[in-house]
Amino acid sequence: MIIDLFRQGLSAQQIIHYLIIFLFALTLSFSIHEFMHAAVAVWLGDPTPRNMGRLTLNPIAHVDPVGTILLLIAGFGWGKPVMYNPNNLHRFKSRRGMNIMVHLAGVTGNFVLGLLASILAILFGSLAVKFSGTGGEVVLKALYEAFEYTYQFSMMLLAFNLLPIPPLDGFHVLEELLPYKVRSTNGYRKFQQFSPYIIMIVFFMSTFAHISILGYIVNIIKTPFEMLINLICMPFYMLLQMAGL
């Protein structure tokens, strides 16, 4: 993030420009992700997220200051997790199914946000080309960049959270599918305890030693979702072309 901006030799004005865009994209992506966790948990019967003030799109309720700063500086960070009580979920019979719904709600929100951001990026990008050389080009280009980065961050957050490693959503979904005998073993508990440190080690290796293991894995996970979004956006893109944009 910021490290990459300095490496590119950008001016102070350009760095500030991209920082504003990054903050917009990050706060929106994190807010939608955590709000969806809260909304689905409340819908399924647990009032805990509402009582803790998490049933809101206000980014202040969802953004973790340290996680956001670290993400801006080095490209690795986190939002404030939504707490919920599985014992309060009662809308459906399957407790396991409801837990999976809560854990998948965040990445589902990121997919929908990525789709909407992609459509808006296509729209503003086309308008920027249409009005090239006019006073509105600067604003349209900035809007294009804002939603393009929102799309990219949403897809990155979706893919990262699907990793089957604690404390990510992908692990919690996998955990619900595992037999109780497996979840009660010492090896399983040790894996839960040390997995977050493994993620951090792999990430810092990717950032400072240029061994992008985590990046490759995230790209593999997000590729089918990006292909689906591109497929959905294709009619919209063709419609803009027919309209002369």
Write structural notes for this entry.
This protein is mainly α and 245 residues long. The protein contains 11 helices and no strands. Helix 2 (12-43) packs antiparallel against helix 6 (95-130), helix 2 packs across helix 7 and helix 6 (95-130) crosses helix 11. The model has no long low-confidence stretch (mean pLDDT 86).
In short:
By secondary structure, the protein is an all-alpha fold. The protein has helices at 2-7, 12-43, 48-51, 59-62, 65-74, 95-130, 136-161, 169-177, 180-183, 186-208, 213-242.
Q: Topology of this structure?
A:
Layout: H1 2-7, H2 12-43, H3 48-51, H4 59-62, H5 65-74, H6 95-130, H7 136-161, H8 169-177, H9 180-183, H10 186-208, H11 213-242
Which structural traits does this protein have?
mainly alpha; 245 residues
